[in-house]
Amino acid sequence: MIEIKTQEEFLRGLPKTELHMHLEGSLEPETLFMLARRNGVALRWDTPEALRAAYAFRDLPDFLALYFEACAVLCMERDFHDATAAYLRRAREDGVLHAEIFFGPQSFTDRGIPVAAMMDGILGAIEAAEDETFSAGLLVSVHRHRSEDAAFEVLRAILPWRDRILGIGMGGAEIGNPPDKFARFFRAAQEAGFPTMVHAGEEGPPAYVRQALDLGVQRIDHGVAAAADPALMADLAAQGVPLTVCPLSNLRLNVVASLADHPLATLLRAGVRVTVNSDDPPYFGGWVTENLLACADAMDLSRDEVIQIVRNGFDAAFVSEARRADLHARLTAYLAG
Ligand code: HPA
Ligand code: ZN
Fold it and tell me: pLDDT, tens digit, for every residue of 286-302?
């Protein structure tokens, strides 16, 4: 019998990557409440449903206020472990074969939590989840709304785990905090041997994406503002610098008015190596599959275009060349089968 898959089943089963997802933003409201109870942390919502109802954001700073507030529920090594394990289980169910997890230690060092508790919790859960089909890794992220000195402190603090960290990135409130503010920091991270990436051109202008490109990062997170600058798009395409685009995040943070207006397809058709990711999935209403599905629908992406996006993810991932070939082969087998 011929099996006919719906588009959603096809996309969920599609071997894919997640390259832009923040651990702090991965907690389902139910998990958040469980952690709050376990740690005796008071929340200003009575129920997970009430918290979920608060997920209506004006813009990135409005979202970040809630995101940083919710970080209070993560306190001990086992919290970081359990949050990571829960995310990785969910990612596997979503058909993700390789996941890179952003985590920003500064929210927690502020509260006196030892970096070792965070690193050991997260890295332990990653190691426990990896097997021959599934791989994952950690991207340490600094806050751009803080000082460059504070970023250097993070870089020093994570050095004992350097061999188990895939890369160094930067997130937080973008407007007024351009990539150039951290030029010395990114140079130092690169000289220390880390791959680097930076959030740019989410709410910020194309000039921030240009600065990100000039910093010599391996990937740019979001980067969607580049679609307004044809010369910049051409340079991104020529240099092959991937963008980790998060369409439902952009919709929920009012970066775009609708997914039909989202520049993903424009960037893709201009030859930019775009990937599709979830950013903070419970907050923005979708994991990678829902992001792909919503884009395919709203932008009329062809099946070949969806497959190109997924292959871009394999090419942009921080994996060995053997693993990269394995990911491509698994996709080829899925499409054949
Ligand atoms: N942008 C900047 N910082 C973030 C984001 C984002 O989309 N998500 C979590 N931290
Ligand atoms: Zn992000």
Answer: 999 999 999 999 999 99
The pLDDT of residue 85:
98
Cα separation, 215 vs 93, whole angstroms: 36
Residues 6+ apart with CB under 8 A from 213: 220, 232, 235, 236, 239, 241
What ligand 1 atom has the least distance to the C-alpha of 24? 9
Atom of ligand 1 nearest to the CA of 246: 7
Verify whether ligand 1 is closer than 6 Å to residue 201 (CB atom): no
As beta bridge partners, residue 169 has 141
Kindly report the CATH number assigned to the domain that includes residue 71: 3.20.20.140
Q: Which of 224, 288, 249, 199 is nearest to 55 (CA)?
A: 249
Cβ pair 287, 247 in contact under 8 A: no
User: Is 49 noted as a catalytic residue in this protein?
Assistant: no
DSSP secondary structure letters along 3-34: ----HHHHHHHS-EEEEEEEGGG---HHHHHH
pLDDT reading at 278 higher than 80: yes
Any ligand 1 atom below 6 A from CB of 252 = no
Query: Which DSSP symbol is given to 314?
Result: H
Q: Which domain holds residue 219?
A: 2-336
Q: Identify residue 1 by its one-letter amino acid code.
A: M
Q: How many domains does the chain have?
A: 1
CA dihedral 155, 157, 158, 161 (to 10 degrees): 140
